[in-house]
Each structure stands twice: as structure tokens, then as C-alpha cells.
Amino acid sequence: MESGAGAASTPRALPYFVASSQLLGLTVVAMTGAWLGLYRGGIAWEGALQFNVHPLCMVIGLVFLQGDALLVYRVFRNEAKRTTKVLHGLLHVFAFVIALVGLVAVFDYHKKEGYADLYSLHSWCGILVFALYFVQWTVGFSFFLFPGASFSLRSRYRPQHVFFGATIFLLSVGTALLGLKEALLFKLGADYSKFEPEGVLANTLGLLLVCFGVLVLYILTPAEWKRPPQAEEQALSMDFKTLTEGDSPSSQ
Amino acid sequence: MESGAGAASTPRALPYFVASSQLLGLTVVAMTGAWLGLYRGGIAWEGALQFNVHPLCMVIGLVFLQGDALLVYRVFRNEAKRTTKVLHGLLHVFAFVIALVGLVAVFDYHKKEGYADLYSLHSWCGILVFALYFVQWTVGFSFFLFPGASFSLRSRYRPQHVFFGATIFLLSVGTALLGLKEALLFKLGADYSKFEPEGVLANTLGLLLVCFGVLVLYILTPAEWKRPPQAEEQALSMDFKTLTEGDSPSSQ
Q1: Is B177 within the bounds of a domain?
Q2: What is the arithmetic mean of pLDDT over A13-31?
Q3: Distance from CA of A111 to the nearest CA of B (A)
Q4: For the residues of A77-141, what is the DSSP string, one character each?
């Protein structure tokens, strides 16, 4: 393993990539608002407009905020690890609560209008994402923020947490695309094929959602962009490493 | 960097994950065939059934074979690197050709039936995936199989190739889900919400596609599951590293 520098400098290209991701994320949120405002009558908690709360909340919570929560460890590189962790956990809480409002909105709307629930691929993927997100947050909290878990347990769980974090985020983006497609086909029907302005706007929104997902994943990938351990964390980690390796030589 | 062993042993869990991925991939292909056979009248190059060539080819080519091409370096760990590379490139060629047949099928079908092309989010994502796949293969071939590229150029391009390879694969899975959703909504319409058997089967197929994508990504992720360099490759790489690092100290 390469030796990590203490208070490390930020890799040169990273700020540009992070800035682009924020610009793209805000564009996606604004464009979702524009789509709902221009072609779907805007947003309200009552009547037919209640449905529109769903896509807006999901894009803000499960796409934009979830994506930003993943980027916290790349952006805050020299802050204390605990502060960064708390911010990561809090952003996920905000994302989850906003997504929950979006979920309540669509179920409530379906109930009032007498529509069936959970029959479509979008809804199946959505419920899967939501359940996985809740489990991931709860398990993450108990391992990394709750003081009980041992260092070796944390080290073994960390790669799983990172993998499933990225996976749930990508699934969220995919589910958003399925929902967008469903909304377009239900309303436009055969007119979708006539390149209606709403269809073109929503397709563009779909491609931008994909770009945001790919950009966040791209920022998460390079090893040299990962948050370097601070000097004191590194000393601690070496102590624990020696301890745990000495502790159980036959463990897998 | 950890020192890689020469002829390395296979990590204990890897074969089980690879076997599960193959089982899942074949299930996805079989289920696509079953869906088309049971509810869409089967497959033919003439008439209305020509459309059905499209989903089957895409699932075989851009999902199953593309996924397997990514796994080649995890499965063939002790074979010569060149052999593994050629297999990786060849599997991608097969995937590309099969996908091309799927693409021709749908454009030909649209033309015969007088349907519009490239208006939906599925088609936009599909064309994007197809173009990226072609560019990725061509650039990959020129860097890694064509003998011209220097060692340092290959090393710098490799992480990009790996990242975009995984991204294009995930985009392919996402595009397949969008297509499945489109096919369901066009045919079932309001009956989709009545839990028609076709809808339930296709939703399940959608979830299995997601599982296959996640499983392939999971196998690609752990550093210790990556193909270790063979003894002679490592010696060569050290020589080149010294050479190239000494060669251009001021390069980025």
C-alpha cells in the first residue's frame, strides 16, 4: 500500500469533476421541476398534482442528495473523519426523508384515485431500492457511527458498504429512468413517437440523469482521489492492524 | 502495491460467484426466450415477429456476453495475458455482432411497419450504448492488442478502459430494462396494473437483469479478485516502470 500523506493536497482535477457533478445535479433537479411545471401542471399535495411530488422528491432525494452523500469523502479530505462521517450519514437521512415524502405522495395519490399499487417494474425496482437504502443506512450506522463495532469488523464491512452504496445509487438512477419512461408512455401514448416537446425534454432529462450517475461513479473510482487517512488515523490504524492480525492468525 | 504471486491460487469464494453469475445470466437469456415464446408469438425474421429478434439479441449480446467478456480476467487467472486479452476482445466482438443483428432487426421492422425511429428514451440510451461500445472496443483494440501503443500509454489508459467498460455494461442493462418496460406498456396498457402473467414474468425478468448486472459488478470490484500479474509480466512491468518514470519526470 502506498504511504498516505497526512494533511494531503487535493488532486488537481478533482475539484473540476466535483463542480461539474454539482452543476449537472442541479440541472437535473431544475429540469425535473421545469418538466413538471411546463407539462404536468406543477406541484400540490391535493388532487391530481399530488402525483408530481413523487418524481421531484425522488430526483432531489434518491438521485441528487444520495449522489452528494457518496461524494462527501472525496470533497472533505482534511476534516476530521468523524465530522465527514456524520455529514455522510446526515445527507443520507435528508435523502431518505425526502424520498419517503415522495413515496407517501404516490401511494396516497394511488389510493385517492383508486389505482393499483406496485404492479410495474418501476415500482418493484423502487421498493427494492428503498428497502436496500434503509438496510444500508441502518447497518452503516451501527458499524461506523455507533461506537460498539470493533476496528477489524469495520474494516471487513467497509468494502461491502462502499460497493452496495454505489450500487443502490445506480439502481436509484435506473429506477428514475423507468419512472420517467412510464410517465411519458402513460400520458403521451402514440404521440411519444411524434417527437412531442415533452418527450424530447424528458428524454434529455433521462440522458442527464445517466450522465450524473456516471460522473458520480467516475469521481468515486480512482484510488488516488479517495480521502487519504490523516496522520493520527493512520497511526491508530497501524496499531489496530498489528493487534488484530496478531489476534487471530487463522481467521480467513 | 502488494507483491503479486506468480501462478496465483484462485480466491476461495470467486468460483462460486462466477458460477452464480453464469447461472443467472443463462436464466435471464432463457427467460427472455420464454417471454417472447409464451406471450409474443416467438421469433422470425419476417413479419411482426421480426421485432422479437431485437430483445433476444440484445440480452444475449449486450447483457450476457458483454458481462462474460468483463469476467474473463477474473476467470482465466493463470493463462498467458495475451490469450486472455484475445478472448476478452473476441467475446466483445461476438457481443457486438449479435447486438448489431438485434439493431438491424428493430430498424428493419420499424421501416416495414412505418413506425418512427429513435424517439424514445430507450432508443436514445440504446444508440448511446452502441456508439460507446464501438468506440470502447476500437480504442481498446488499438491500445492493448495492436502492437503500437507504448507501455506507459497503456498504463494510463487502462483505468479509463476498465471504468468505461463497466459503465457501458451497466448502461446496457439499464437500457434493456427501459426496453422491457416499453414493450410491456405498449402491449398491456392499463392491463399492466391487473398483474397480468406477462407483466409479472417480465418484471421478474427485469429484476433478474438487475441482479446479473450487480453480480458481475461485484465480481469485478475486489482488488484481491483481480488477475495477478504472472512472474514474467511483473519483471517486465518493473523494468518499464523504472524506464518511463526516469524518462519523463515532469509529465503529469
Answers
A1: yes
A2: 98
A3: 14
A4: -SS-HHHHHHHHHHHHHHHHHHHHHHHHHHHHHHHHHTPPPS-SHHHHHHHHHHHHHHHHHHHHI
